[in-house]
Amino acid sequence: MKLLVVTSNPHKADEIRSYLGGRIEVEDVRLECPECRHDDVGEIARYKAEFAWERLGKPLIVDDTAFCIDSLSGFPGPYAAYVFDKIGNEGILRLTEGKGRGAHFQTAIAYADSNGIRVFRGILNGRIVEARGREGFGYDPIFELNGRTLAEIPLEEKSRISHRALALRELHDWLLVEADL
Amino acid sequence: MKLLVVTSNPHKADEIRSYLGGRIEVEDVRLECPECRHDDVGEIARYKAEFAWERLGKPLIVDDTAFCIDSLSGFPGPYAAYVFDKIGNEGILRLTEGKGRGAHFQTAIAYADSNGIRVFRGILNGRIVEARGREGFGYDPIFELNGRTLAEIPLEEKSRISHRALALRELHDWLLVEADL
Hints:
The structure is a homodimer. By secondary structure, chain A is α+β, with helices and mostly antiparallel strands. Chain A contains 5 helices and 8 strands; from the N terminus they run E-H-E-H-E-E-H-E-E-E-E-H-H. In chain A, strand 1, helix 1 (about 10-20) and strand 2 form a beta-alpha-beta unit. The termini of chain A are close together. The interface between A and B is medium-sized, with 21 and 21 residues.
């Protein structure tokens, strides 16, 4: 039972291996996938998985993550990485000052095999706060849940509760029962 | 001499027709093109033109426009329309408060024929100001050049001096001399 992880980040395959390990062999593949512009990260992952399946023809997953702020109509959404690179957490704090601060992360993992595409999602709800903590990366210092920011939660704990972990758990449970690998 | 304009906006073809008119027949075609994520709007247009050429096989153009703020590392760049939809001019003013306000629009038009792809660009430099004026749309009220915002410039004048007009002029001059239509 072998699963290709389409990514340009080798750490991603390691992380997925540690979740799926045991009966599922994980191998990373580099493949540039064009992206559709879509507000829904699940549709973006699905599109990339279709592209990769046409070229590779073996069971594979592609993932994508969005960061969505309710009072900004879901901004920055699937452009989370681009927006962080340009305006950082300081920009997000400026934009949300005096506004509602509810936010969530969402990871979508699209799995492709000869039966088609299936999308698994994990969502982590929280709110925007002034930056605290030194762990993690990106928006972690300004995203709080249950009194701590993601940057105040040890990496080992974060990797059990994160949006990414939730999506991987869905995938894992389904793979073991249903997948035609 | 016939040129396809790949767009989902029928007004775009009308506008291009009014620039290129005369010897060049312009016809609009609807085709969903996947987009690559790239900071350079020229590369985005080039990628879409390649995709469209593979499917249509006739001389065509595709365009894309970016809005870039210097002090925000070029944000919102090619995501100008998405970002406007989410945070509007109020968001841009928050992000640039107390920062450098230099900005520019850039339109890239990618032309494809059997000889390959060629990209034409038009750039309009200005700066971010508090919103003024009632013409135009999008970022026009907060983009000032030579003492007026784009929303204070009559549409007929704007359509002669805009980034889009500059790119179309480049295309027009080259088409008449060089293109293998």
